[in-house]
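Lest this sound abstract, we think one record worth quoting, the chain in one-letter code, the fold tokenised, each line plainly labelled:

>
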Amino acid sequence: MKVLAGDIGATNARLAIVGVEAGGIEILHRARFPSRDFPGLAPIVQRFLTDAPGTVERAGFGVACPVIGGDCVTANLPWRINTSTLAREIGIPRTELVNDLQALGHGIRWLGPGATVVLQAGEPETHGVVGLIAAGTGLGEGFLVWEDDRYRVHVSEGGHASYAPNGALECGLLGFLREEFGHVSRERVLSGPGLVSIYRYLAADGHAREARSVRDEMAREDPAAVISRHALAGTDPLCARALDVFASAYGAQAGNLALTLMATGGVYLGGGIARRIVDKLGDGTFVGAFKAKGRLAGLLAKIPIHVIVNPDAGLLGAAVVAARL
């Protein structure tokens, strides 16, 4: 069957017509739209469908928001989405709305060879709990639990739980962010805007001098992308230090998630940031912070860690959600 699938983030909305069969999934037609250019999800879908070939009778969307009773209020976009209203506006009665991490979880089993990079092989337990964590415009967290004959996906809003700093530098970062935001959630640090906040804190606290050329680039482009680019290229000490702090904090939170869930089946990192900085994540900073849990460091060393580098994982999962309707 053919379904409409959407992976909807605060930065980009990715839509596709997907063929779903018993033996596999194939993306047949796709497009990407800047989310903030639209007042809601329905206008994006309507625009996409005007150019999409053929018709579909089912639709599934993974959206970066908590979905409760078919309703979703996005944290990083000024949108309010209702499943029934959306179905009516796009003309597809069989429409389902799920959290983006839930869609990602459904997509994991369909990832082919080369779709992940292994940061830690570990010793996975058959049918063990699997953790999901994804930093992007915000921070998503979820998990998969084996029930009966397959994994079932569960989501959380752990990204909005309170940030726990490690060491004096991160304690200073917490104080810096508290002055600006009051409550400091994990996604205030572990997100694209969070990376920029780390950079600003390090510059303000004198950890490294800010280069005017980098500041000018950040004014013209996505600031987080500029920081990551210079850090990975080794062309700016402040950017490199910011990404180092980010990778360490990311690893520490992934380790917290693994302990909370007893994720003996492994932890998967999704989101655009992990794909872009996979080389940094693989230099030992992330894994070192992941395992730095005192007496339970040995347990953490046995938990596999994978970075999802296939950008279509969320779309594939949304297609699975639609097909199950």
Notes: Residues 161 and 253 are 11 Å apart (CA to CA).
